[in-house]
Amino acid sequence: MTAAETSTAPAVASPKPTKTKAKKTSAKPKAAKGEHPSHPPYASMIKKAISELKEKKGSSKAAILKYISKNYGIPDRLVFQVN
Fold first, then answer.
1. Where would I find the H15 domain in this sequence (predicted)?
2. How many secondary structure helices (H) and strands (E) does the chain include?
3. Tens-digit pLDDT profile for residues 10-45
4. Predicted confidence band at 57 (pLDDT cuts at 50, 70, 90)?
5. In a domain, 24, yes or no
6. Cα separation of 44 and 50, whole Å?
7. Main-chain phi, psi angles of 45, to 5 degrees
8. First vs last Cα of the chain: how many Å apart?
9. Torsion sign across C-alpha atoms 45, 39, 65, 30
10. Which listed residue, of 14, 53, 61, 80, carries a Cα 20 to 30 Å from 1's Cα?
11. In terms of residue numbers, what domain contains 45?
């Protein structure tokens, strides 16, 4: 090697690529704050259903779900997802 090759030359900084942050988009639009469902919480609906059905040995899950869908206008596809 020659003296010119071994001498320390100032390091040339390679230009760093600028990072741009991409906005994350969610697949589902989120509900705006302040929007509340038109029905009471499920716990209170279930308590009301049990008290209104007045069965001696207790109410079945199917009977409770039927009562909720009938009286609160919740579609069956949403009610039957509750375990």
1. 38-83
2. 4, 0
3. 666 666 666 666 666 656 555 556 676 678 888 998
4. very high
5. no
6. 10
7. -65, -40
8. 79
9. negative
10. 14
11. 38-83
